[in-house]
Amino acid sequence: MKLKKSLFTLLFMSVIFILSGCGQEEMVTNVGKLKFEQPLNIPPLLEPEIQSDGTKHFTLTMQKGQTEFFPGKMTDTWGINGSYLGPVIRVSRGDKVAFDVENNIGEVSTLHWHGMKLPAVMDGGPHQMIEAGETWKPHWTIDQPAATTWYHPHLHGKTAQHVYRGLAGMFIIDDEDSKKLPSNYGVDDIPLIVQDKLFKSDGQLSEKDDTTFGLLGDEIIVNGTHDPYLEVTSNKVRFRLLNGSNARAYHFGFTDGRSFQLVGNDAGLLNEPVTMDRVMLSPGERAEIVVEFKPGEETILHSFNGGVGIENGEFDLLKIKAADQLAESAPIPDKLSSVPPIEAPEHANVRTFKMTMENTINEKKMDMYRIDEVVPAGTTEIWEISNIGWSHNFHVHNAAFRVLDVNGQEPPEYERGRKDTVFIANGAKVRIAIEFGNYPDPKNPLMYHCHILLHEDAGMMGQFMLVEPGTESQIPAELPRKEGESQHGGH
Ligand code: C2O
Ligand code: CU
Ligand code: CU
Question: Residue whose CA is closest, atom 3 of ligand 1?
């Protein structure tokens, strides 16, 4: 019996070895190297200034700084209103928001609201460039269900570098449904922005990005804290997991095997909580989980090895210690979101996208002047995304979707809610029912792309125009070029 089992394991391992194509790929790990000595940084909540019409006005300043990831060593980093990462923005559905985004990093960038439904000119994608020293002033009304979204630069060709250096932050939207879950920020509602880093021996960040996927780090920081621990003081805690890494995917779970309740993913709460013990997030994806604690216990949030490439690695992420006395939290409601699941109409328009090893989508690389798709605003379509080489994921701006199937099968449980980014494994075909925002604009395109930042920068991105239904045929395939701009455009 035992022999049979080990023969089977051997066979299984060699198949994996051959499939991976590179037996040399050693597992990356930080297990055993951490002491969990640094208190987890909780990014501050940004206070808005309330304008006379009720608009919540926020100021974000992209800047250079230095961060002490390792005691006694200063690392050059970038941050927003601070030296690394940015503050958490928290608003409610229905709020009017306005931002002053000041660019003090000394070079052009952008700031994109990932997961937000909003007009294309406010999106902060590659076209909404903020020159060095300038201030960009987007504004919109929050009109979508509660969700954990985020913001980060999106300058074409530079996204990986700008995010890696530290420009990113969480953006939380509340509504009546989400307030029934633990919501006391920093107490029982905790953001966890997980990123991998490569450090040089002098403590500076290495930007070595020579893998197929770009930079894959061997150290993990959470909310900008290396070697972190967190003390929790209530018996149920909501964690908002955000994979803010350039390329690495995480298979989240706990070292003691405990289960947790998944209550939300990228674009909103689930209709009902689901109990599970693993959630996989590829870059850009989010999950909200509620974890229960007993007084005095400890556990480690961990990422389990998922194989090769971006899934290679076994990492301890955060030690969580429960206080000796825990406040009793309200029970998790059986019904969470009151928003029905996204359904495509019977004769929904279907579009197909093919992702390849050459970082193309439908055989094309990103062109800032080419419009790849024209989509009627406010509709729900079916998009079929297949991947014929390496690992990729797929993110769409100004949209929310539900994964219908993965290779014809039901998606994994953690992928069943409202999403805006989905992992597409090598060889996989994923079908989504995708609901678009309702801000038609015939002049300013929106993006869909792989959120592995090197791939995105390399051109694995396309542009779509969201237009008034019935006007699709009036949209030219090319954007007008400004005087003096080259045929190739972009950067
Ligand atoms: Cu988070 Cu188009 O990106
Ligand atoms: Cu986005
Ligand atoms: Cu990719």
Answer: 114
Report field, pTM of the whole predicted structure over 0.90: yes
Neighbours of 185 (CB within 10 A): 18
User: In the β-sheet with 399-406, what is the strand arrangement from edge to edge?
Assistant: 350-355, 380-387, 429-436, 399-406
Q: Is 384 exposed, middle or buried (0-12, 13-18, 19+ CB in 10 A)?
A: middle
Atom of ligand 1 nearest to the CA of 284: 1
Nearest CA to ligand 1 atom 1: 114
Using the mean position of ligand 2's atoms as its centre, give its distance from the Cα of residue 121 in Å. 13
β-pairing verdict for 399-406 and 429-436: antiparallel
What are the C-alpha distances in Å from 78 to residues 82, 106, 293? Answer: 8, 11, 35
pLDDT in tens, 117-151: 999 999 999 999 999 999 999 999 999 999 999 99
Q: How far is the CA of 442 from the centre of ligand 3 (A)?
A: 28
Strand segments, DSSP code E, in 255-391 are: 260-265, 268-276, 279-281, 286-292, 298-303, 315-327, 350-355, 373-376, 380-387
pLDDT in tens, 273-315: 999 999 999 999 999 999 999 999 999 999 999 999 999 999 9
Enumerate the β-bridge partners of residue 362: none
Q: In whole angstroms, what separates CA 440 from the centre of its chain?
A: 25
- Shortest-distance ligand to the CA of residue 115: 2
Instruction: Please state, as a whole number, how many other Cβ atoms lie within 10 Å of the Cβ of residue 332.
Output: 17
For the CA of 450, the nearest ligand: 3
455 C-alpha vs ligand 3 centroid, how far in Å?
Answer: 5
Q: Which residues surround ligand 2, an ion (CB under 5 A)?
A: 114, 397
